[in-house]
Amino acid sequence: MSDKIWANSGDSHLMEPFELFQENLPKDLAERMPRSELDPDGAFETVHVDGQEFRRKVPFVKRPMVDPETGKSVFDRAPGANDMRLRLEDLNEEGIWAELIYTSIGMWMHSIRDPQLMLAGCRVLNDWAIEYQRFSPRYVCTALIPTLSVDTAIQEVERTAGMGFKIVMLPTSPTLDGPNWNRDDWHPLWASLADVGMHVGFHAGSDPHEADTFNGVYYRGPGAHLLNYYEASYHMQLAAAKLVSSGVFERHPTLKCVVSEGGATWVPFMADRLDEAYRQHVNQVWPKFRRLPSEYLFENVYASFQHDVSAPQALAAMGYRNVCWGSDYPHLEGTFGHTQKTLRELVGDLTPAQRHRITRGTFEELFPHVPPAPADDTDPVDTTG
Fold it and tell me: b vs e for 109-133, b when ≥16 Cβ sit within 10 Å of the residue's Cβ?
């Protein structure tokens, strides 16, 4: 038995090299792709997305560095932040086995307004990300899907499924002013995902923005930072509710949705609210289901949390089994450097079966192709429910 609590991460990230778009797209397209420019002192940055821009204060001083031998940018973060080999060393040290991996700069891709530009950017990111997954089966990378048209979305779903991706990343809303995820327009996308056997991942900060809400700024004034942080979590919860309430999982019961970095106790709460609406206002509900909304929510939606002390209780006390821990590696608000301490504080008092489900079992259910983690004291199989 290992003295570590080995865990799979339901929320990690790639750090795209600054040169990625410049090296893989024509200059006129590359200049419109998302990029961040730091002030010389590293205290503020300007983010550019297809002619739009916003400035934000960086919560830590950071400076991009250049490797003198290669001329490539490197990051002042965890050693393996943008190196697929060193990354495994970081994970082994932290006790993290496999990762569900989202992009970082790619989070801003869905604020692009040009369908073909978005498609081009997504293809570059996906062609780069798949090399991590090909390097090690411990990396489960998300395919970034363009959402300004249903046709381009399906086109990239089919292409990336053929490349070996197991899950797509979608923004919490597809566009600023078009039909939302609950509308019939998107039926072909859900059917395509179900046909190729890919899951859906939602992550905070992925929704499309206008200039006044770039970087998730919805509120200003006293308490604004806390309100904006909460708002980002709410958008992910609402995205899952859109799929449940519009019957996506009724039509496609094998389709799974992962909500990353958003806690877990919201799922039982949402289940209560949706069931009450369905029971008490059934004459106004459309479409009708064969089962209660809570059943689809509990079976098809998976929730990844990071530091939330309440999240394990969604499993231990509220009957919601699809709870998965996430490290947020290598983002600086993540658990790198103190993963084992964090895990023991979060799941140390649970039963072995409960710990196993949260740290490994839920992830393994979603991605059975990933080799099992080293043995530890969470290994008893969860048969208690």
Answer: bbbbeebebbbbbbbbbbebbbebb
Closest-CA residue to 130 (of 92, 94, 100, 160)? 160
Domain residue limits at 344: 7-30+83-366
User: What radius of gyration, in Å, describes the C-alpha atoms of the chain?
Assistant: 20
- CA–CA dist 207, 202 (Å, integer): 9
* Mean pLDDT value across residues 21-38: 93
Q: Which two tokens stand for residue 149?
A: 């048209």
The two beta strands, 44-49 and 52-57, are antiparallel
Q: How far is CA 177 from the centre of its chain?
A: 23
Beta strands in 61-180 (DSSP E): 65-66, 73-74, 96-102, 139-144, 167-169
d(CA 330, CA 252): 34
Say whether pLDDT at 279 is over 90.
Answer: yes
Q: Give the CATH number of the domain where residue 248 resides.
A: 3.20.20.140
The whole-angstrom separation of Cα 21 and Cα 31 is: 8
**Does the predicted model carry a pTM greater than 0.85?**
yes
